[in-house]
Specification:
alpha/beta, 13 helices, three-stranded antiparallel beta sheet, binds pyridoxal-5'-phosphate
Length: about 375
């Protein structure tokens, strides 16, 4: 007899992990929006110092990291949620806010963990298609908000399209969202946005107790292997509810030490952002020269639709291009696996040499197959 799992387990989608790591070496890994830059030497030293404390449980409230975040963002420590990656905070928000009968609103395609929140809780998910520029349709989202809405997710810049919304539009949107609905503004990539000061959204917190700005050490700080994220909340009760649903010690000692140290090196962060943006400009230029039309990315990855070309006997256009890239040792994400209805690729901007390998491989993979 097979094990009988809960309804919940049957509903929860499996997170689409980037596969194929066992292929040809050396691989160019551009599938997970990671930082191409290794941790700073000072961060490594902080991790090494913390290793000696691993016989003890970590500080359960991450007090030093919390204090440093509070100083950096001018948000009281009691309104900061820390998590085992920002995914942990998203899942905790799902647990604290959602249940059968409740509703959750988000744009689609957007971050692939969002559907998990509805599935895990039994709440109803209402998704709103991105507009023609691959941006959130905020008016459309407002129309889906009802008395049953408990959570609204806005991903800015959006994963997988990289597109960003003006702060003024977000501010007008928030003014219309009723206070009973919590809004999470997922800003995992906000530091790469050149259209807006990444800290400008902090002002929104004062007017909106139902708002949380969700940020992470995984992207711009290059610490995704350690798992640290944080939420800056408009109210203490929101931060407290997130703690209530989680296991104690959710942020490990090495992660706390590394994140605290990383925060002290904002100059290095800015320098790395500048290098990524320079790559963004040059990769997008080459994509356009190939006849492609990358979306206006304000993140560390691009989104390229592959056009409505006919399927070939070897599969869809997207599968063919993905295979071509993989054969050349380049890993990216297939757009349809991320919710796109048209063939597309999501590609992280890497180091110059990695980007060159991607672009060369793409040029070859896009060439029409020779006639049989
Ligand atoms: C939009 C968005 N939010 C949150 C996350 C989660 O990041 P982490 O759990 O590593 O902090 C990601 C990761 O890719 C993301 O793309």
């Amino acid at each position: 007899m097979a094990i009988e799992f809960s309804q919940r387990i049957r509903r929860i989608p499996i997170y689409p992990a980037a596969g194929g790591y066992a292929q040809q070496e050396p691989l160019v890994r551009l599938a997970s929006n990671e930082s191409p830059f290794p941790p700073l030497p000072e961060v490594r030293q902080a991790i090494e110092r913390a290793i000696g404390t691993l016989n003890r449980y970590p500080d359960p409230s991450s007090s030093l990291l919390r204090r440093r975040l509070s100083e950096r963002y001018e948000v009281p420590t009691s309104r900061i949620a820390i998590g085992n990656g920002s995914c942990d905070i998203l899942l905790a928000a799902g647990e604290a806010l959602l249940e059968p009968g409740a509703e959750l609103v988000y744009a689609w395609p957007s971050f692939s963990i969002y559907p998990h929140l509805a599935a895990a809780s039994g709440a109803r998910a209402l998704t709103v298609a991105l507009d023609a520029d691959a941006r959130h349709d905020l008016d459309g989202m407002l129309r889906e908000i009802t008395v049953a809405t408990r959570l609204v997710l806005v991903c800015n810049p959006n994963n997988p399209t990289g597109t960003a919304l003006p702060l003024a539009d977000l501010s007008a949107f928030l003014a219309e969202v009723p206070r009973h609905a919590c809004v999470i503004l997922d800003e995992a990539y906000c530091e790469f946005n050149v259209l807006e000061d990444p800290d400008a959204s902090l002002d929104l917190l004062e007017a909106h107790p139902n708002l949380m700005l969700l940020r992470t050490f995984s992207k711009v700080y290059g610490l995704c292997g350690l798992r640290v994220g944080f939420g800056l909340c408009g109210s203490e009760e929101l931060a407290r509810a997130l703690d209530q649903v989680r296991q104690p010690f959710y942020c490990n000692a090495l992660a706390q030490a590394a994140a605290t140290e990383a925060l002290a090196h904002q100059d290095a962060v800015l320098e790395r952002v500048a290098r990524t943006i320079a790559e963004r400009i040059s990769v997008d230029e080459r994509l356009r020269a190939m006849g492609l039309a990358p979306a206006d990315s304000q993140a560390n990855f691009c989104w390229v639709e592959l056009g409505a070309e006919r399927d070939t006997p070897k599969g869809t256009r997207e599968q063919q291009v993905m295979r071509g890239l993989e054969e050349r040792g380049v890993l990216v994400r297939a757009g349809t696996a991320l919710g796109s209805e048209v063939p597309a690729l999501r590609v992280t901007y890497g180091l110059p040499e990695e980007n060159r390998r991607f672009l060369d491989a793409l040029a070859e993979a896009l060439e029409p197959a020779p006639a049989p």
